[in-house]
Amino acid sequence: MRVKKQRCGWFYSVIRRLGVIGDLHGEHERLARVLEWFGGQQLDALVCTGDVADGRGCINQSCHLLQQANVATVSGNHDRWLLEDRVRHVADAHSIDEVSDDNLAFLKSLPRSRSFETSRGSLLLCHGVADNDLGKVWPGTSRSRVERSDDLDDLIAAGRHRFLVNGHLHYRVLIDFHDLLLLNAGTLKGQYSGITIMDFEADVVTAYEVADTGAPQRVREHAMLDSTPRRRFRNTSDFDGGWEPVTLYRQAI
């Protein structure tokens, strides 16, 4: 990966191929195998949408692996809750007492959002929407309700970013706007665990399934910006519940 370290953190040159990890939730064993596999994919950078905390695995090993592999990570609402020592009734909640001092410092250092330059325009990485770690975006379908976002509408109006990569919903999907492409990176947790590669030069998003054993398996590919057949929205005020999700799974779930 073409990465240089500066005093302020990690600096990435223009990204042409990006590896994307969704909400982690302590899946350190899956993360270790994913990072090893990513090492052979000729990537320029790796990112993670946060929620390192609260899951069946080890939070200390999860933090260590992210740091060791220089994965650009943002803070999720579960990370914030852990540091605030609240909402500890969630399933598989980690305790702040089990986190090492070094890893606590790492979690505290995570920003809510980070920006990167790709060969096709600026990309914003966040957990929810921008600095709102509980923000949701969903155009709505015949079976699911609309989730609009003033924060996202403001980002679209500002015009500074061509791509937004987020998590929180645990559902790998593309949402097309006229001036922005949103990729929800999903999660490494559960039976629908997966990762994504964004190839900005080839204009392709490729999705992979991740199981408890074996290498990630390619399951779906979509064009990114050359997406004429897909529905595009001006902003979230256009959401009307009549959307057909552009999913990144082997089959609809």
Write a brief structural summary.
The chain has 5 helices and 14 strands. The protein is of the alpha/beta class.
Number of strands: 14
| CATH topology-level fold name | Purple Acid Phosphatase, chain A, domain 2
> What's the total helix number?
5
User: What is the rounded distance between the termini?
Assistant: 33 Å
Major beta sheet summary: 6 strands, mixed
- Which percent range fits the helix content? 10-25%
Helix-strand category: alpha/beta
Classified in CATH, the superfamily is: Metallo-dependent phosphatases
The CATH class label is Alpha Beta
Low-confidence stretches: 1-11
Shape type? globular
Radius of gyration: 17 Å
The CATH architecture is 4-Layer Sandwich
Strand content: 25-35%
Report the average pLDDT across residues.
Answer: 94
